[in-house]
């Protein structure tokens, strides 16, 4: 082994710094610690206090005659690799920093060594090449004219040391031989083989196989990457068996002409690019060596680095071969503009108005008494706009039955659906009263059937009620408005009117108007939404509810969400399950609930409706009141936005925990926090939570299934 003093920086503490070096006026001295201290202060999450206290070092680069004051090793690594986070976790980055990797051949190997160093994918790099840099190498080796005639391994080591002087490099400037290969391999975790000599390729693999060290090789033609996992399969034939069961003793005495056919078989000549295959014929005639492009070589560095990342991330990396041919990729260019045009064509409304389309606008004056009652019932709100009801009728009644098939995970025990049926029953009752045909209202809860029924009298002959007609108009134009509010408070008169609408023998309304209490609920809903995003089944259901289809008769129109531009632009990212899985693995995702939290914080008040009893019929009765409160709030000029936390319909901790496969404990803690804060009695249950605000956001009337 030859370790050149001109191939690695020398590190000193302040106490160790030689006086003659510090006082040498010919040395170029610089100090980056002021800038790095400021950068350390700005890191998110904040850096460990120990990093601020770490003693700086002095790095001396003899080939530049330069001395640089730098942060200590832990602070330096934290700063230099900070932008790797979320591509690599802290644990993965630490594991990468312990890797000892040997690279044989520093032409293609230079780009590989450089990329591994940039990404912090090694704690030690051993670089082996006997060759010196020539001008003809500089179409692919990122060196300079000042490096001409220097050893290729030393050039690479110097460049790496200037990037990270704490990264250990060892230079084998005589290349790999039978005499030094054992020293080169001792303690290595991985070898990247990029040399030109076929006999050395075989030697390296044979030795690595005996030591169970995996070998990677990148062939720049066609972006070919070979992975040989001798650590997993120590009996595996070299080069995937493409050249037979090669052994070093088979190569003894063979000259270049005899070795070349073996090398060609390894390359799979039928699969190399046409340019490379044709160049093989021209070798010694119109070209003196194998052609290589700088871009292909740099791509090779990225490819090998990606493979090393998979090792530290414990992702599958089996033995085999893969090609990253850029020309093949470019032949497959997709045109996003054409795809967008096709998507718009697919969703352009047609003249077909099938029963799956949203219900068209209806003039109530055109409807008979019974049809108006049905129409009003169908205008009721429901969680996720699931419309969990079946509406049937005869000559003297309209029945709204719970449809248990239209549900979701958060609809625990169909409780949210029962509230929706109650809201539909309220609307039907108001419509019957408006036309003067209301006889009676009854609730049916027997033999698995939950329903509300409005009995009618004198259909077509009733005396209208002006007061009910006014409320019916409000019901038929009722809608969710999710825009950010101005935070203006409710007046005492408005609180009293809402209290009148929400309080009866079965329910009571809790109006949350104190800004500190609103902020507390903002925190709860924010954390609850985060858990919903990060729970795979809840995330899937959440985005199933959303639609941009103009023909969809159910679900929530994305336009009605009134998302801020930044979040609207991220919607296609937010709907990706793989993104949520990564955020969950990282312990991130606080931003996922930030929008809900900011909307609550902008509200004028939060309204919590509380009911007595927890039977299905109790939720249906409370749904009658919930709709009355909503209509009353809109009549006072407030925008209404239901914002129920994920766990609202869980009656106990075990049920709350079961809602999320990975954040059940978080939901339990949030449920306990809310119940400790809100005055909910032992015989009570929360029915729904409304956000009230004053906002300029437009009213979106929900689409409806045609019955």
Structural features, described:
The structure is a single chain. The protein has 707 residues and is of the alpha/beta class. Helices cover 40% and strands 16% of the residues. The protein contains 28 helices and 21 strands. The strands form 5 sheets. Strands 7-6-5-8-9-10-11 form a 7-stranded mixed beta sheet, sandwiched between helices. The longest helix is centred in the middle third of the chain and has 20 residues, at 415-434. The N and C termini lie far apart (84 Å). The model is unreliable at 348-359 (pLDDT under 50).
Q: Secondary-structure blueprint of this entry?
A:
Blueprint: E1 10-12, H1 19-22, E2 28-31, H2 33-41, H3 49-53, E3 57-61, E4 66-70, H4 73-80, H5 90-96, E5 100-104, H6 108-118, E6 124-128, H7 152-163, E7 168-172, H8 181-185, E8 190-193, H9 198-211, E9 215-219, E10 224-228, H10 248-251, H11 256-267, H12 274-282, H13 294-312, E11 320-323, H14 326-331, H15 336-346, H16 369-378, E12 389-394, E13 397-402, H17 415-434, E14 438-446, E15 449-456, H18 466-476, H19 492-502, E16 507-512, H20 515-534, H21 536-545, E17 546-547, E18 556-557, H22 565-569, H23 571-574, H24 577-586, H25 594-601, E19 605-612, H26 616-635, E20 639-642, H27 653-658, H28 664-677, E21 684-693
Parallel strand pairs: 2-4, 5-6, 5-8, 6-7, 8-9, 17-18
Antiparallel strand pairs: 1-3, 3-4, 9-10, 10-11, 12-13, 13-15, 14-15, 16-19, 19-21, 20-21
Helix pairs in contact: 6-7, 6-13, 16-17, 17-18, 17-26, 19-26, 20-25, 20-28
